[in-house]
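Subgroup meeting minutes
Present: P.N., E.W., G.H.
Scribe: E.W.

1. P.N. recapped why we're keeping a running log of single-chain structure predictions: easier to compare across weeks, and new members can see raw inputs and outputs side by side.
2. G.H. added today's entry (165 aa).
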Amino acid sequence: MNSTFRDSVTKQWLTHDLFLETTTQLGTAVYTLRDEDVVKDGKTYPSLGRLYVESDDPTEYTFATQHLGGWAHWKYLKANATSRIKNLITEWKIELEAKLVSRSIKQIAGVAADGSVQASRWLAERSWKPTKRGRPSKEEIEGERKFQARLEDEISDDLERIKKH
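Output recorded in log:
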């Protein structure tokens, strides 16, 4: 068991204390939430988002085992993190997906350049783009409503914190 990723007292997986920007316990931060690595007091805090996108791992398993306490820690982090961290994880997923799609399109373009009619047609039809469809489902509407409510709560929390300081 890697104690770097667990609270020294409760032995629970670290969530917000894992990050330089959100930690409340001195010495527990391992990563930064920023897009680039941060050096503070001579210590480098790697960007977990950068590592996530660089992992090229849409399953997230290899990422979790290489950069966190494993799969269980990653699941715990996603389930118990603050809304700010959850939103960042969502953004990391979107960026990784865009990166993988971009790489795939380049590979298909190479095949098309070699004379593949099917690859050329796929590119010409812009088949990587989702097709337009009708009204969103009730689940999608409810998901968007919950997202907007979480966003509003986060903004309110931030405003309260700012007012206190």
